[in-house]
Design brief:
- By secondary structure, this protein is mainly β.
- The protein is about 0% helix and about 55% strand.
- It is built from no helices and 16 strands.
- Strands 1-6-2-3-4-5 form a six-stranded antiparallel sheet, with no helix packed on it. The protein has a five-stranded antiparallel sheet with strand order 9-8-7-10-11, with no helix packed on it.
């Protein structure tokens, strides 16, 4: 069992029957020896973040989350289809919430799947990925190529904002957690 003071950054625990990871915490001492912990935590099932205050009477179970390798196959109608590399015929279907950032996945790309109670609950994508720009508005004469942004469409169909100098065919790096442009690779 974990007490309220054991909820340090990176700790996995069960809250309301779901696994959570602690993103940030602060210990607050109150008069006469009492203490509370302010915790910012993220659900491993749907990716929602929330803040809670826990008291000395609160106890939690430690979450046992296993990691496995998954291969992305395709996406359709808000669902992402994966398989284990050694069992390609067994499909694993995850929702938008479970595959957060999934719009940046390319077919055959390997990701890490998180298992809780022998069920795959979500996937961890690499923080940054490189994708080809397949559609970008033309650069307008008279403007500065270093100012402003424009919407570009990537090879996976995802849309993002990129600097005006980015053109079709460029390879750019995207932060999968925020969906933002990071840099031009080629």
């Amino acid at each position: 069992m974990l007490s309220h003071t054991d909820l340090k950054k990176g700790t996995l625990f069960i809250y309301n029957g779901q696994p959570y990871i602690v993103l940030d915490f602060s210990l607050n001492f109150q008069g006469r020896g009492g203490s509370t912990v302010q915790v910012k935590m993220k659900s491993l099932v749907n990716g929602n973040a929330l803040s809670k205050v826990f008291h000395p009477s609160d106890n939690f179970e430690e979450a046992e989350v296993d990691k496995i390798q998954l291969k992305f196959i395709y996406s359709a109608k808000g669902e992402y289809i994966f398989c284990q590399p050694e069992k390609p015929s067994q499909r694993i279907i995850l929702t938008d919430e479970q595959a957060a950032g999934g719009q940046f996945l390319k077919p055959e790309q390997m990701v890490t799947g998180l298992c809780f109670d022998e069920k795959i609950i979500s996937v961890e994508l690499p923080i940054k990925t490189q994708l080809k720009v397949i559609e970008a508005a033309a650069y307008l004469r008279g403007g500065r190529a270093t100012e402003g942004t424009k919407e570009v469409i990537l090879e996976t169909g995802a849309k993002t904002q990129a600097p005006c100098f980015i053109k079709e065919g460029d390879i750019i790096e995207i932060n999968t957690q925020t969906g933002e442009y990071a840099r031009r690779v080629e």
